[in-house]
Fold this sequence. Notes:
Blueprint: H1 12-35, E1 47-49, E2 52-54, E3 64-68, E4 70-71, E5 76-77, H2 85-94, E6 99-105, H3 107-110, H4 112-115, H5 119-125, H6 129-138, H7 147-160, E7 164-170, H8 184-197, E8 204-209, H9 216-233, E9 238-242, E10 266-272, H10 275-278, H11 284-304, E11 309-313, H12 320-333, E12 336-341, H13 354-364, E13 376-381, E14 386-389, E15 398-400, E16 408-410, E17 416-418, E18 424-426, E19 435-437, E20 448-449, E21 458-461, E22 467-472, E23 478-481, E24 500-504
Parallel strand pairs: 3-6, 3-12, 6-7, 7-8, 8-9, 9-10, 10-11, 11-12
Antiparallel strand pairs: 1-2, 4-5, 13-14, 13-24, 14-15, 16-17, 18-19, 20-21, 21-22, 22-23
Helix pairs in contact: 2-7, 8-9, 11-12
Amino acid sequence: MLCLNFPSIQTNSQYKSQMGRFLLFSFVFLSVLCLLPPKLVVALPLHTSSRRIVDEDGGRVKLACVNWPADKEAAVAGGLSHRPVGRISERISAAGYNCVRLAFPILLAADESLASLTVRKSFQRLGLLDSLAGFEANNPSMLDLPLISAYQAVVSSLAENNLMVIIDSQLSSKPCFHGSGINPDLWVKGLTQLATMFSRVPNVVGICLRNELRNVKDWYRYMQKGAEAVHSANPDVLVIISGLGDGTDPSFLLNQQLELTCTGKLVLEMHWRGTRRARETGNPNKVCGRVVNSLMRRGGVLLQKGWPLMVVNELGAEYNRYLNCFFGLVAEMDFDWALGTLEETNGLMNLKNSSFFQRILALQDAGPNASGNKHLIVISHPSTDQCILRKSLYEPLLLGPCTRSEAWGYTPQKTLTVKGTYFCLQAVGLGKPAKLSVVCDLPGSNWEIVSGDSKMYLSTKLKDGTTVCLDADSSNHIVTDPCKCSSRDDMCDPGSQWFKIADISPYSPRHILQISLASSTWN
């Protein structure tokens, strides 16, 4: 509302003059507002459309999440003894993530006596006096809140920073359904209470069901019960289910689907704890091939069948060499993902190098901003998470943001063409820049996706028969060089020559949320 304090009006002419100035100001102000671009927002709640997660308006929402673990014994979000909750939330948002998988000890919902315990008393009963002192220094307003209220305060902080939340319902130190774990009925009760609690909290967009089941028969029985309980209590949230054991293999769903009434809400989650693969030695192409084949065999095949799939990768920047494999697969398969984790010891992300954060931002903006096209082909460069761009016919091709990429085509003759033009990609010599040409039947114009282990090379033959691979030089210009790592060299780095012809689903970038916290109601 615009409030005006008019001075006392002495004459009719003074009144007219003042009103004229006011009307002129109002006209100019409204004209400027009309010139501003509309602020696009995600229309919550979310649902699924085939393999995509979309908002209420049907626009794609690509989830790019970070994992925020909890101290399972104290039942408190990790890191709050070392950093204020607002600072952690701000950093997550600044790093380019749009959502958080926030761990929730399921007993908080199932056990009222635990939920009502204060943060202070939770630390005291476990003898965690150093954590208690740190929490009091960094988050004093939360210290005497009940544990459940402290969790809600974290969710509110994430909402203030425009971050969606997927509640990752976890067990305490003991898993369900085997050994001395909690009763399955208590697990379903906890999920029901959890879904009810967040039924009017708009930035909570999904709830993960994790119970570490080892038996397929039990999995179908209890996952169905848990999913239906969540959907009945909160029809707005996505119901996210993981596979057997530690959630690394949902491929058994190819043989028998899970029958649920919550259509348009089910999302699969597959964990990739690639630590062993990441430390594996050998030729990087071969190791990458094994990593990608493993992911595709266990979860990628479901994505190809039309299941919405979210891949949870718990590797960090220290495994950067093999993250290129993961990023290449993200570009090719265009799935939703959760990457990295927050350190419980200091409340900061363990992905500390700034170039990694730039890659996260690039990975989230993974495709051209185009409307009306269901699929577009781009030429992605996984080690930089950029795409091949052209400025003009005469300027060198270079890497740049995939959001600025034109659509490419890959013809049966294996030429790479710029859609809507006569231009094709052509190699002209060893160590020379690749170029665009309108004569597409010359040597150097037919590009093979090299059928080696990684399948990330684009190679062609020059006029003299020399085989070259597409490469990115130190200035991010596109050149052609001898293919790297074709021998058994275990120490070579093929990253600059790894490219993916990625068939992606474009979407418009949107502000993730515009939430009035006053509209959130805790049940």
